[in-house]
Amino acid sequence: MEKTKILWINPINVDAYDQPMGEFIDTIRLPGTEVEVISFRGSIPLNNLEYRTFEAMTVADTVHAARYADEQGFDAAVIGCFYDPALEDAREISGKTVVIAPCQASVQLASNLANNFSVIIGQEKWRAQMSERIHAYGYGSRLASMRSIDIPVPDLQKDCEYTAEKIIDAGRLAIQEDKAESLILGCTCTFGLFETVQKELNVPVIDPIVAAFKSAEFMGSLKKQFQWYPSRKWTSAAPPEELIQSFGLFKNPPSIGNRYLLKEAL
């Protein structure tokens, strides 16, 4: 069987999450899937995108990474942040590479498993931007609530037992008070915790890395089997190549600071 190649983009300027996320992805990937996990190289050591200001600093690198994914023959690319930063921009320039993002993948999956969902967010700051995304995707009517655990992104993996306890407490309130039928963990840095929470609360608990990565694998396989590539008609059209060249948009290599590779499993 022809292998599937997936690029996982950590849209930050530090490599702290590349190996841990790569190791987690290694536990869920199919045998025929190759994965490259990357983060960016930048003068500002951004280790989270909790603020729109931080996100704005990484948009150009994310777009360039999507272009790189197509040039290197990746079947799919994942933007590894639950804000889905620069998703539409990356899709416009990704050629034949399908671009996936965690929020969209998670709400799609949760809606296949339940009539509604609650999102467990790290901080209240996230609420407005994530709500906007979910409503823009057409899933606003399925959003039962958002519950904050008051833990910033850099601290989510510092004490996983404590983080899981906070998620369980917030999830229980979402189920009992907001009538949530499923839960979505609203940050990719909660990876590895969903099974503990799910066992305790007995509802589907969506890990956004799992949702996004498995969606990327699935879309990559559909692309190979049925030639379902991203559309380039009308509003999905990419910038004309002659303009890209005249502006010198991608004359320099992408700003990749680190790579973590997972070759095809034997």
TrEMBL record:
Source organism per UniProt: Pseudoteredinibacter isoporae
Protein name: Allantoin racemase
Stored Gene3D superfamilies: 3.40.50.12500
Stated family: Belongs to the HyuE racemase family.
One GO MF term: amino-acid racemase activity
InterPro entries: Asp/Glu/hydantoin_racemase, Hydantoin_racemase-like, Iso_Racemase_Enz_sf
Keyword annotations: Isomerase
One Pfam family from the record: Asp_Glu_race
Domain of life: Bacteria
UniProt EC number: 5.1.99.3
